[in-house]
Amino acid sequence: MRKFKWVLVFVFAAWVQRTAVSPPLFLGTKTPYEAPVGRSTTAPAGYRPVFVNYVGRHGARHLTKAGADIGTLRVLDEAAGKQGLTPLGYRMRAAVKRLCLIEKGQYENITLLGAAEQRAIAQRMRGRYPGVFQGRGLDVVMTYKIRTKQSADAFLQGLGGYHGTVRMSRLPDSLDAVLRFYDLSPAYLKYKKGDVVKKGMDSVDRDARTAAVAAAVSERIFTPGYLKGRTAAEAMTFSDDLYDLFSVQFSMPGEIRERGWSADSVDLSLAFSREDLVWDDFRNGAQDFLEKGPARDPLGIQVKVAAPLLVDFVRTTDEFVAAEGKDAVLRFTHAEAISPFASLLGIPEASVAAPGIARYHDHWRAERIIPLSANIQWIIYSNGEDVRVKLLLNEREVELPIGGGPYYPWKELRGYCIERLKAVQAGMQGDMVGWLKELK
Predict the structure, then answer these.
(1) Rounded to an integer, what is the distance from CA 112 to the centroid of its chain?
(2) Which of 213, 214, 215, 364 has its CA 20 to 30 A from that of 269?
(3) Which of these, 277, 400, 287, 268, lies nearest to 347 by C-alpha position?
(4) Termini Cα distance of the chain
(5) pLDDT, position 404
(6) What is the mean pLDDT of residues 142-152?
(7) Is pTM beyond 0.85 here?
(8) Residue from 74, 112, 73, 116 nearest 95 by CA
(9) What b/e readout covers 226-257, taking b as 16+ CB neighbours within 10 angstroms?
(10) Could you tell me which residues are beta bridge partners of residue 409?
């Protein structure tokens, strides 16, 4: 087991260099980014890449705030003071202490792996589309969160000595309809607190497997005597917090290595069985599916809100086709933007609704759609007279429900996008902040 854990940390430390498909890790949206393998479809004769339209999630990160780490350690310290920990419990306590030391002062920041993910995506982009980066300029747009600025900086490093003008910008959250649209729609915020999400998650949380996982985790870590004073609700909170820490540990192999710690000294996986992790991953993904994915309606409010981002992609592609004024538009945002955008585009793996939450995993997987550093790319090709667009989700070619792929004639793709916008009561209007506020 120890040897396996050393192999595991090596794999994560070199994540961006992977050439083979990894086994399931049960991390959902906290899955570190994995470069795709295999060849892409050759462009039609005479066409060459000339422009990149990009939106990406930030790289692998630390926790966004203190909570799971501090709360878990507090419970473990209390149990230790009462001799209430099993041998595994003491081992988990030591691991959590180490993770808390790493997290201190690092909340919201990307990790070393997160920066490496971003650099590697950019390096592959420049290597695959060398004709794009001619020094005509880059527009780099970020949200106000520090992790998107850090991701943009790392991405630009990966482009390696770009010689054109780099125009970096970000809007206040209250005005950022393109990258933080999900915060600006009263109807969507109401949806997140409404019956669809609540009832769906209640059915998952009340499932017997949820309590069984919490009980099993507690029984591995706490002594029977200590457990007598613990409630089922406390057990669930502890188990959920420990799973959050388990998930984030895979984002920081570099930080672990910098401190001279072995992988197994911070490994929380022994607190869970494989079946426990499968269920926790399912529960976490269910909420993402309902709030950010197709849920019951692939064009519902949780997808409609992404219209401003699609409008921006169409507008900036139009501008390039008309004037060829820059090399790329690079946007850096969050999972809450990437997933609904993928659904609105009609990408098959991102847009299949589920009438009930129990079967959502049949078609929708957070780790494939919105892992850390998730991205959607439009690669614009030209033969000097005609323009075509190749779409990529996490650097994998996308087949949309229209003909002509994977290199779609821009006129046809643009028409498809306009129809998708009409389907959610949007157009190419300029005031998308106002549109979001009126959206129903």
Answers:
(1) 17
(2) 364
(3) 400
(4) 53
(5) 82
(6) 98
(7) yes
(8) 73
(9) bbeebeeeebbbbbbbbbbbbbbbbbbbbbbb
(10) 388
CA distances from 391 to 57, 296, 388 (A): 16, 25, 10
Please, what are the domains in the chain?
A: 28-438 (3.40.50.1240)
> Do residues 164 and 154 lie in contact, with contact meaning Cβ atoms separated by under 8 Å?
no
How far apart, in whole angstroms, are the C-alpha atoms of residue 197 and residue 80?
38
CA distance 316 to 178: 12
| Eight-class DSSP state of 92 | H
pLDDT for the residue numbered 148: 98
State residue 79's pLDDT score: 98
With contact defined as beta carbons under 8 Å apart, do 151 and 56 qualify? yes
Q: Is 85 helix (H, G, I), strand (E, B) or coil?
A: strand
User: Cis omega (within 30 of 0) on the bond before 87?
Assistant: no
Phi, psi dihedrals of residue 113, rounded to the nearest 5°: -65, -40
pLDDT at 22: 52
Query: Residue 213: which residues within 8 A CB-CB, separation 6 or more?
Result: 239, 272, 276, 279, 280
Question: Residue 140 phi/psi, 5° resolution?
Answer: -115, 120
For 284-306, the DSSP string reads HHHHHHHHHS-TT-TTSHHHHTT
Residues 395/35, Cβ–Cβ less than 8 Å: yes
Please, are residues 168 and 196 in contact by the beta-carbon 8 Å criterion?
no
Quote the tokens at residue 367. Answer: 């780790």
In the three-class reduction of DSSP (H, G, I as helix; E, B as strand; rest coil), residue 380 is classed as: strand
